[in-house]
Amino acid sequence: MIQHVVHNLTLEQIKFLNRGPTYVPPCQLHILSKSSVTLAELVTKEMVPLRRHLNKLFAKYLVDLSRKMNFEEEIQVAFNESFLGPLPTMLEHRALYEKQIIQSIG
Fold first, then answer.
1. How many CB atoms lie within 10 A of CB 40?
2. Domain of life, per the record (predicted)?
3. CA–CA distance from 9 to each of 17, 18, 96 (Å)?
């Protein structure tokens, strides 16, 4: 907690810094992004580490090709759904509000 320190932060900014940002669901990440990356590019980028890890597991446990391809396809669909699903209005408002507070601090 910030006390007895000279600063230019508003009470709202101090409260935010004390509690920290709330959980950010995957579908909300595109709202918080600072770049002009499209949502499809963001999903592709976020999928890379998962693909890498899966490939290591498939090689380690010698998963047959058809099972591997089926699993990769199902994972890709689930991953896309988690990012591309509609964002509930309350979450969107909260994300934009917290983004605004973060930008006002920096």
1. 12
2. Eukaryota
3. 10, 12, 19
Q: Which of 3, 37, 6, 24 is nearest to 102 (CA)?
A: 24
Report the alpha-carbon angle 83-100-41, nearest 5: 30
Q: What is the pLDDT of residues 55-106, one digit of tens each?
A: 999 999 998 999 999 999 999 998 888 877 777 888 888 888 888 898 898 7
3-state secondary structure of 38: coil
Per the CB < 8 A criterion, the answer to whether 80 and 41 are in contact is no
Quote the CA–CA distance of 90 and 77 in Å, as a whole number: 25
Among 32, 39, 37, 36, which residue's Cα sits nearest to residue 99? Answer: 32
Measure the N-to-C terminal CA separation of the chain; round to a whole number of Å.
Answer: 18
Is 42:29 a contact under the CB 8 Å cutoff? yes
